[in-house]
Design a protein that fits this description.
It contains three helices and no strands. By secondary structure, it is an all-alpha fold.
Amino acid sequence: MRTTITLDPDIAARLRRLAAERGSSFKSTVNATLRAGLEAEHREGRPYREVTRSLGAQPGVDLTKALTLANAYEDEETVRELEARK
């Protein structure tokens, strides 16, 4: 089927580059790209599920600032190591 479409300049440039990379015609590159896009639209992916794990925290322990606390302990340990070298 023959039809006329207006492509945005950036899309036309990308299609021309892709055609050159593949060594194919502009027409076949446009058709392949449209076909891939239309087929991707109908693919059903698996729903994303995140597996959660218990951190084993004791009741009353606030983990919201755990990284800050870990950094503070790491800094203290670094200071101890540097003092031990003297």
